Amino acid sequence: MPRLETTETPGRIRILVVDDHTLFRESVARLLAVEPDFEIAGHCASAADALRLVAKTPVDVVLLDYDLGDGKGTDFLAKAQSVGFTGRILVVTAGVSELEAAAMIRQGIAGILRKHCSPAALAQSIRDVSGGKDYFEPGYLRSVLAGIAAPAPEYQRKQLTERERQVLRYVFEGLANKEIADRLQVSESSVKATLQQLFSKTGVRTRSQLVRTALENYKDQL
Predict the structure, then answer these.
(1) What does CATH list as the number for 149-221?
(2) Span 148-164, pLDDT tens digits
């Protein structure tokens, strides 16, 4: 049965856990509930129950399993906005193929975390995506890029500079602007300027949109 928590504390990150394995779902909910900046908005086993819960209560981050027994996490992704969900989605899964990962990125997920991660990594990933970042394990997006179809025809794209390619690769690894600046030994403002150039060239406005566009159209330039 889906469980909806009614308590709401301002300033906390409200989390919904969606997983068809009861022991895992309830254990994660209890684990996260002790964090001072987290609040468990509810937990449930199916996409249909998740859609009903987010339609009734505010949720900032959904922890979504890909394989939900008789259904898929993509069933939630396809309909979440239509029921008024405006939060972010972190897929927590035992594993998905490159094509499945690419499809979910195109549907707007904020990250993918595999279930063998540590509790600390799970908590930090929730904070990251709640704060507007995308969260992917280091190198994970590169493996996705290596496994998906060829990019769109050249006439639809603009050529990336070497610095733009460098910054984009680090964006794929989930690094913040300061971390990218440290890796490249440039100023943080230089990284921000390069990101703005990438946004302009690809016609997007956010880092998550940039990742999806790069997956679809710029694989060969990376």
Answers:
(1) 1.10.10.10
(2) 554 544 445 678 899 99
